[in-house]
Amino acid sequence: MKLHPYIGRFAPSPTGPLHLGSLVAAMASYLDAKVHGGTWLVRVEDVDRDRNVAGADQHILSSLQRCGMQWDGDVTWQLQRQDLYEAALRQLGENIYPCACSRREIADSQLRLGQAGQPNLVYPGTCRQGLAPGRTARALRLRTPQQPHCIIRFHDRFAGDISQDITAEVGDFVIRRADGFWAYQLAVVVDDGAQGITDIVRGADLLDSTPRQIFLQQLLGLPQPRYLHVPVVVNADGEKLSKQTGAQAFDTGAPAESLLGSALLPAARLLGLAIQAETIDAFWRAAVPAWDAVLRAHGESPHRP
Questions:
Q1: Residues ≥6 apart with Cβ < 8 Å to 301
Q2: Which of 9, 59, 119, 216 is deepest in the core (most CB within 10 A)?
Q3: pLDDT tens digits for range 121-136
Q4: What is the pTM of this model?
């Protein structure tokens, strides 16, 4: 059987410098590409212009290089790919409808339907049959099948078999936001398809989004990548380490070799890699077989062309 070439990616948002949590995701995706003898791409997900921080993209790219991670090919930016998202929107056609609901109105509807307090609130379908008189469209939503329900099943290389009833657990979801920006779900699917991504390695906080992305892949006729979601890094309060929870940059401009002890080795430990190294080059020489061993412990036999 001929195996398709491995193409992976790391797709950071330029909302600030990389922190330890994002380094863990970058390291896992980089090592997975190396173990499979594949290609590792970097894509800057800057589609949310309101959250972008000037210069953050270049800081991220510099940090990756200073950590010894070099991508293949050219870096891509989502803001340069707007035509692709427009084309996908046209392809989705009647599966899309305008929605006039504000967050407050959706919350009120959910309260009336008895959904308040549930972890995953479902859009009630207020605008599914058209906008009420005098209402102005805010966002665009994607219809999910009602009868039968849209149930997506897939295998995650770490989490195992996953199933989600999108109709019951998510409902019709946004693909273009009220502020006019493209929603993450659409942009990431279009980008992964355009770049031929075969394997997606990222944090487990995105595991719940994967069924929606697979549904979009099916509608757009795109191949489904393999998925691997690594555990997210949390702070002392048990919150996901992120810029919103005060995560600090690991790269403060000190000599690159200092990143070995302050960033690379801690990130490796969080991935379950037992590595001892005195230089960055030695770290990566040890990290690739260590990741290979982690995959084999999960029942995989990584393929090297």
A1: none
A2: 9
A3: 788 889 999 998 889 8
A4: 0.91
Provide mean pLDDT across the span 67-71.
Answer: 97
Q: What CA dihedral angle connects 11, 168, 141 and 112, to 10 degrees? A: -120
The span from the CA of 9 to the CA of 91, in Å, is 25
Residue 2: which pLDDT band, with cuts at 50, 70 and 90?
very low
Predicted pLDDT at 1: 37
Numbered residues of the known binding site:
9-13, 45, 99, 101, 123, 127, 184, 202, 243
Binding site for L-glutamate: residue ranges? 9-13, 45, 184, 202
